[in-house]
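Lab channel / #folding
Pinned by the channel admin:
"Please post every new chain as: sequence first, then the structure tokens as a reply. Keep commentary short and put observations after the output so the thread stays searchable."

First post following the new format, from NK:
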Amino acid sequence: MPAPRQGAPLPAAGTARLRAAVVAVVSGLAALALVLTGCTPFLSPGSGPTPDTDTSATAGAPPELEKFYQQKVEWSSCENNLECTKVTVPVDYSKPGGETIQLAVARLKGKNASSNLLVNPGGPGVSAIDLVRDAGTTMFSDKLRSAYNLIGWDPRGVKRSAPVTCFDGPQEDARRQQNPDYSTDAGLEEAFAEQLKLIDACKANTGPVLAHTDTISSAKDMDIIRAVAMGQSKLNYAGFSYGTLLGSTYAGLFPDRVGRFALDGALDPALDSTQVTVGQAKGFEDALHAYVRSCISKSGCPMSGNENDAIIQIQALLQSVKEQPMPTTEGRVLPGTDFVNGFILPLYNNTNWPVLTQALTSAFRGDGTAMLRLADLAADRDSNGTYSSNSTYAFMAYNCLDYNTPSDTTSMRNEADQLHQASPTFGDFFAYGGVNCRDWPTKPVRTPAPAHYTGGSTILVVGTTGDPATPYPWAQSLRSELGNASLLTFNGEGHTAYGRGSSCIDKAVDGFLVDGTVPKDGTRC
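Reply from TO:
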């Protein structure tokens, strides 16, 4: 999920979308495609036993929610040899007798699984069913998949689960073509007016869940999934990126239900929206420098000179696109925001840096086609003009309810100055996130605060030193806030660590999730 957002198409709070770096972007002869590495066949739905249901799984449920915890679910074969079911939850947990929604849940069965592992790839707004379907057999090790059935769900408001619905494909394409100048009062007013059109469409097309697409409600959903779809008294969970915020929120709400929790690519729940945005802007600026150092050391790099020279050349290119959108062969132009959306996608995973080099090479020649295709991948736009998910809108909904984003002109201008200082290249494009949420129909329901966990199970926090989207200090903070936790560090580049090629990390996480062996706090790979 990933890109900055200056009031335009992708991340909706000025921040970069948070999702596990489990995908590789590759270039073909004439196009760029997003693929998952590996080609291991999926297990059939019937392979392996189903773990016995723990009779205490539903014990202790609040009386007003008992009907949700006591529901029976039916599994059936579905896409790509998964098993799928629906779990009913209340729209509003303060009114459990009111309207309900159904959450889509999928299971990839393990060969000898004796337990279930709930997984979430981040976002907010990314489908965990897609993760299990597309990366279940490639991202997760044989050892882990032998011990666990992988359980993925689309959180409320996401794709298959009462999705936040706003514009259709052509309308979203048109929105992404907009290029307002946020530095002027007239440009800012234009942006607010265009955003209000989007918000009105979300209100008209989504329904009551729009007011309850938030992390606290989603964490409460997780506990009902644990009880009725997993049948376990303790939740085993692997959360990546934004999924770590879901995990730490769950741990605070249900400390005695925490089993083995691995939180990779940590988001510090104590940070407000400005702190998150500034941290990410600096993270992507650092990632840019790492990429540039690698690029100029090889032949075929479109930048020349030393590291500073190359950065200046990129900044000049970006400024030119900001002033005049770049032409493409797609029938659309490439505005500055989409240029950055495409640019930072490969920065999530350093194995994708060669793709960025190809896109930049074309861009320096005046052709934005390759960079636009990267931006399309970040937006989940297919080549036929349809959008395969609603991740952009779900991201916006969660952020507007999870964070009180400053939206008055003075505060946004001040934040823009901070962002430019933190990231001279990208900071301007992370600014003005308040445009997205000022007119949102529901006020924020979450107040940022340090994680609070009182459970007896040690939580594993995994951080990557060169992580652009969830900077490493956030992992250090989350580990400290949780108390009963252990920090595992990957010395490397890219977003998240597990399943990205480090056998040291993978063995440590597998040993924790499968064998219960907690890595020594401070372990580095």
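NK: Residues 48 and 111 are 4 Å apart (CA to CA).
TO: also worth noting, The chain has two domains: 18-37+165-208+272-437, 63-151+213-270+448-524.
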